[in-house]
Amino acid sequence: MRKLLLAAALAALLPCTGRAQTAADLMKGTQDTSNVLNYGMSYDLQRFSPLKQIDRQTVKRLVPVWNYSYDDNKSEESQPLIYQGVLYVTTNGATMALDAKTGQQLWKTKIDYPPETPRIVCCGIISRGLALYEGKIFRTTLDANVVALDAKTGKELWRSHAIDFKNGYSMTVAPLVADGVVITGISGAEYGIRGFIDGWDPDTGKHLWRTYTVAGPDDPNGKTWPGDTYLHGGGSTWITGSFDPDLHTVYWGTGNTGSWNPTTHPGDNLYTCSVLALDPKTGKIKWHFQFSPNDPYDYDSVAEMVLATLDIGGKPTKVLMDANRNGFFYVLDRTDGKLITANQYIDKLTWAKGIDPESGRPIPTEITDNVRKGQAQEVWPGAMGGKNWSPVSFNPETKLVYANTLNFGMHYKPTTPQFRAGLTYWGADIDWVWPNGPRGYLKAIDPMTGKAKWEQPSDIPRFAGVLSTAGGLVFTGKLTGEFEAFDADTGAKLWQFKTGSGIEGQPVTWQQDGVQYIAVSSGIGGVYALFSGDERLSAVPAGGSLWVFALQ
Asked: Which of 235, 262, 449, 455 could form a disulfide with 441 if both were Cys (CB 3.0 to 4.6 A apart)?
């Protein structure tokens, strides 16, 4: 009875919104500055806000107004959502609703996991966020479930099981609601899974469709996998896609092959390391573009596919932009997937000479030719890529993409893996090749050339998301804990605040009662912290929390 009374009391604290967060609400994106209803802040994943109360002059007065402990010591990469004064956020083990002005917890719903779950997750025990739609919260779990919660109370409304996690599958992705369908991806390419994207009914959790990202015998592109190698072909989908409501098309990136040894599965290996243009109602593939055929290097292409309108040859053109892990920045026509341009955006790249402008295929160097003969080589960039998971921001005013890029290579030696369900299926031995200098840069990139207008080096690379604003600012964070603000035009650092752990989260901003707020999660534990061996991070304590800032 006490639990029921508490739930009723907490529900009374929340706004009475009825069937909130409609499809029309979601399409407003950042035009609605009082709410943040989308992963990436809008369907286009630009992570740009028109708010400018916090600007180049006022940012020096930015101070924390509250901090909330997640009671969790794992990597915190979740992006908060805000609706009518309530902030919703996830960790791997819980979903929370907080008063957005004060940080007061309104409810918290925990997840109970089987004891064997954590060992299945490759690169950090993580949740990247949630979706809001018609009064419900949608999230995924590490043991491969999709869950709907009541946004007012946190009560579980339905739970749908995607697949058996014991075979190496997991879910860290924030769902996407597009054309009334909840869409989710999957993790586990390093365990030899066969990747997919799913569609779910938001009211009931009924499974509507599944699109495999590794083409099988029933697919015209199944011939790009020899024999039954497609069954363990990888193709994870652990970053949320973008959506063009006018074209009724979702754009979702796909991950690396299983295994990394290209000689074990010769061919293009569609649809790994690609972007898929999907019908959200059916999951049907409208078109695809593959960035790295027969990928040996873990250059997966799951990261954000940013949508914008650019002037191409004097004509406003709907484009898709991708700072690919393989080191090339791509601009595609998103109506048909045709390549517009692709240029190197990192300092050192040795695996390919460039991208063929007609076919869109990489032009391999002798290094990659030797790797495909089974030889050990030094390769740049390394397996973490020219940019890893950390989301970029596109500012439509400056026409620049702000990205946290990486600057290190690897020694790569192919091995012959043996598939065993639930165990890693790497297919290569690697160790890192570090530069004499910074291991990463925050760059302001011209998407049409790949050239940087400015760059801010960091000895320990940044792995946080990026936010840009009409106030002329770029926000991101460091693994050593600093939340930072830079001048969008010059790259000059204007402000920073030291949080209690490393920042790997995704900053967002909104306006409430005339005040602009900025929120970001702090909490170290992702792929670089796990696999780099960087001893400088030993002094950075674990411990997740949410920081919210406003002007003093």
From this structure: 455
Give kind and range of the element (H or E) at residue 24: helix 23-28
Please tell me whether residue 94 adopts helix, strand or coil conformation: strand
**Which of 298, 251, 257, 306 lies closest to 275 in space, CA to CA?**
251
Catalytic (active-site) positions: 298
Helix, strand, coil percentages (3-state) for the chain, rounded to 5, are: 10, 40, 50
Mean pLDDT for 281-305 is: 97
Count of other CB atoms within 10 angstroms of residue 130: 24
By DSSP bridging, strand 48-49 and strand 467-469 are parallel
Alpha-carbon distance of 40 to 512, in angstroms, equals: 19
- Strand-pairing partners, residue 147, are 139, 159
| Structural domain includes residue 3 | no
Query: Measured between alpha carbons, how far is 45 from 312 in angstroms, rounded to an integer?
Result: 20
Structural domain of 190 = 36-551
At 5 the pLDDT is 43
For 477, the enclosing helix (H) or strand (E) is strand 473-477
Rg of the chain over all Cα atoms, to the nearest angstrom: 22
pLDDT in tens, 178-233: 999 999 999 999 999 999 999 999 999 999 999 999 999 999 999 999 999 999 99
User: Token digits for 296?
Assistant: 């040996």
> Is 106 strand, coil or helix?
strand
Q: How many domains does the chain have?
A: 1
Instruction: Note the pLDDT tens digit of each residue in 101-117.
Output: 999 999 999 999 988 87
Q: Please check whether residue 264 is in contact with residue 227, taking contact to mean a CB–CB distance below 8 angstroms.
A: no
Compute the distance between CA of residue 307 and CA of residue 45 in angstroms, rounded to an integer.
7
Residue among 322, 188, 318 at smallest CA distance from 253? 322
Per-residue b/e over 413-437, b at no fewer than 16 CB within 10 Å? ebeebeeeebeebbbbebebbeeee
Q: Does any domain span residue 289?
A: yes
Q: What is the pLDDT of residue 21?
A: 85
pLDDT at 12: 46
Residues 352, 369: Cα–Cα separation, whole Å: 10
**What rounded mean pLDDT belongs to the chain?**
95
The CATH number of the domain holding residue 538 is 2.140.10.10
Contact 439, 447 (CB under 8 A): no
19 within a domain of the structure (yes/no): no
Q: Summarize pLDDT for 38-89 with one digit per residue, the tens.
A: 999 999 999 999 999 999 999 999 999 999 999 999 999 999 999 999 999 9
Residue 22 belongs to some domain of the structure: no
